[in-house]
């Protein structure tokens, strides 16, 4: 159980790029990173594309005015000169800026936490991965709900064979907030999401499905996709070629099959993330509408509802527990869990503690790489008319160069 006691010797000096007043995701980062004030301390930021608004915002959340910067380049330069300069930075800006800001941050000797989808291409990720290795830095990716402790419960039960051999994987991440064209006109955050120059090669495949895809890998680390078929649509035609809905069928190497539905036009849908794993003996199901519950359905027996914080759960699940039973936990605690793991990873990297790094389960740069690879393969299939394609291996850095 986590109670805020320190896991590293002192909190890391941390900054944000983006995440300002009008940002959708900024507060999630701060509730995650600052939940345990023993992990991170927010000391600087280039919070907004608009300097004055970003500065006012930074001051309002307690950052010194002189450390609220007009842009990330100035921030990295000025912070580098300080003895108490930042050690880690979060990048919470639109997708098309991630690559250049990540690169600049690593070149400035910072650990990086970056939003998903990490970059536009696997080549970019491999280049940055090499740079991070050279610099001895961590790059974490904020697949927020992956920090939910029931993911670790699913992983443990699958590993122990509680559901038997996996046969069917059903994944879903949908919402209905972009059901009409109006959304694209009035929301800045929606406008860039349907602009390929800023969003990248996809809309919902990158924006939504990368989360649940990573979670599926987290709970079933041995399940590798062999081929997939992706059919993507733009129900709001002005969004083409970017999709607002997609179905993906998967064939796994062990013979299992899967399907993924991702959508921003699932009208009326408010809680849209679902994972159902069907095995030869039983099934497991998790919905983000009840994130502290897991449905465990053994064929021929009454279904069981496993509830978080209970002693019958696996130790790895209860290790990420915060509030104990009787109360509701959800997205904020999941973010706090991944940020705590980022802090532990950064500290271990700084100390050269390979054992901690090898045993820590968190969304690292490889998770970012897999997300980009997933998008690339889905788009490759969809753009050839929804055909089956081999799930291509990411090329090695040597092949890329
Ligand atoms: P947004 O449009 O709501 O906010 C973007 C913010 O970045 C704004 O504050 C803007 O002023 C700022 N910004 C843009 N360019 C900047 C720059 N060069 N320097 C400094 N600030 C800059 O976008 P959003 O919905 O918050 O999405 C941002 C990123 O977060 C995207 O990559 C998105 O995919 C991701 N996201 C992730 C989650 C999650 O659950 N992990 C949720 C939402 C968004």
Keywords:
alpha/beta, Rossmann fold, 9-stranded mixed sheet, binds nicotinamide-adenine-dinucleotide, Dihydrodipicolinate Reductase, domain 2, 401 residues, 15 helices, 5-stranded parallel sheet
Structure description:
This protein has helices at 26-33, 51-60, 72-81, 98-107, 122-135, 149-160, 182-186, 188-193, 196-199, 204-219, 315-318, 331-351, 354-359, 365-382, 397-400, and strands spanning 12-18, 40-46, 88-92, 111-114, 139-141, 166-174, 225-233, 245-252, 257-263, 273-279, 282-287, 293-298, 304-307, 388-390. It has 401 residues and is α/β, with parallel strands linked by helices. The chain folds into two domains: 12-145, NAD(P)-binding Rossmann-like Domain (Rossmann fold); 149-318 and 368-382, Dihydrodipicolinate Reductase, domain 2 (2-Layer Sandwich), CATH 3.30.360. It is globular and about 65 Å long. The mean pLDDT is 96. Bound molecules: nicotinamide-adenine-dinucleotide (NAD). Residues 17-18, 20, 22-25, 46, 48-49, 71-72, 92-95, 97, 115-116, 142, 144, 188-189, 207 line the site of nicotinamide-adenine-dinucleotide (NAD).
Tally of structural domains:
2
Q: The CATH topology of the largest domain is what?
A: Dihydrodipicolinate Reductase, domain 2
* Element string (H = helix, E = strand): EHEHHEHEHEHEHHHHEEEEEEEHHHHEH
- What gross morphology would you assign? globular
Continuous helix count: 15
CATH superfamily of the largest domain: Dihydrodipicolinate Reductase, domain 2
What are the low-pLDDT stretches, counting only 5+ consecutive residues below 50?
none
Helix content: 25-40%
What is bound: which ligands? nicotinamide-adenine-dinucleotide
Regarding CATH, which class of the largest domain? Alpha Beta
